[in-house]
Design brief:
heterodimer, A: alpha/beta, Rossmann fold, 5-stranded parallel beta sheet, disordered N terminus, B: Rossmann fold, two-stranded antiparallel ribbon, Universal_stress_UspA (chain A), Rossmann-like_a/b/a_fold (chain A), UspA (chain A), UspA domain-containing protein (chain A)
Chain lengths: 220, 186
Amino acid sequence: MMAETKAVAAAVEASPVEVEEGRSKTVAAAVEASPAPVEKGRSKTAAAEVEAGPAEVEEGRSKTVVLVAVDDSDASYRALEWAVRHVAATAGMAGAGAVELVVLHAKPPTSLAVNMGGPGVSGDVVRLVEADLRKKAEGVVDKARRLCVANSVQGVVEVVDGEPRHVLCNAVDKHHADLLVVGSHGYGAIKRALLGSVSDYCAHHAHCSVMIVKQPKSKN
Amino acid sequence: MEEVSAEAAAMASGMAPGAGAGGAEGATMKVVAAVDASEESLHALSWALDNVVRPHPGASVVVVHVQHHADHFAYPVAGHGLQYVPPTAVDSVRKTHEENSRRVVSAALDVCRQKQASATAAVVEGDAKEAICRAVEDMHADLLVLGSRGLGMIKRALLGSVSDYLVHHASCPVLIVKPPNKAHHK
């Protein structure tokens, strides 16, 4: 179709003022014939796009993506429970206002765990640590899935390797999350300074709103 | 002061009959949103209403504003610098603060009304982070909503971040809503 129009345009350009009857008729006919199909085709595609557009846009707009971080601690399972009950109660259901729930477990890099053991670590130890981390990760995934099922909520459970704070913030970007839910260990100020708080980091660096679910402590 | 928060607590609990015991999850959820004059806090309130309160038919909302304390002779002006306030001027300064509070609270309640959420308001005085923390405890909030100014690390250390403090000291989950230009969409 594009080729046709081009040809027609060329023909029109080529035969300016001096147009013989025959030629002009043909050209005119060609000019008449082609824009119409081209337009129809174009408008059809445009219409289809427009039709698909709002629907897609609506889905994208009304679907809230909630990302919950779990790390095998009670605090994080409590965060998942809270999220599932209060924010993602409709996760997995179709329709406007739908919520998509993604549960993410950041599996700490084996190198990190092994380095903490000191120098001169043998290959066997590395393998053991790796296996242990993987088993723990599977346990976390299982528990998270069961929690979702128990609350009749559909969610995707993922495991990503890497340092939790970066894994979480990257995941927010990747999934275009609207809300990140994390538990908080409730470390005191000193522990936080030494160990570094993932929830603190995420609260400030994640590109979306962050919900920090803490353990209900008996207030001092 | 004591009066204000007691009144506020009474008003809040009177208006929200369902939400009573702390930790009461499920249908009744008490959402406390801290607002100040900033756009971010109103956006935080509006985001929370859309994403947390709307799916919860039984949720109640309390808007809390911390009014600047006007009884001291010297008070921080916009977080930095001190100014001497002669005793004669304290009253007028206090009136200005009250006027500001009224404006902030009515803006927040407008947002709630637009989203068809019933909300009550409370104005407390004192140091912002401690006052909000106390209010959250007194009201047995199930969720605290804060806006985030998106201050960088240094500003946060110098000016003191209310949200940092509350994340660690509030007695309930805390939701920090980022301003829309920081967030991806919406």
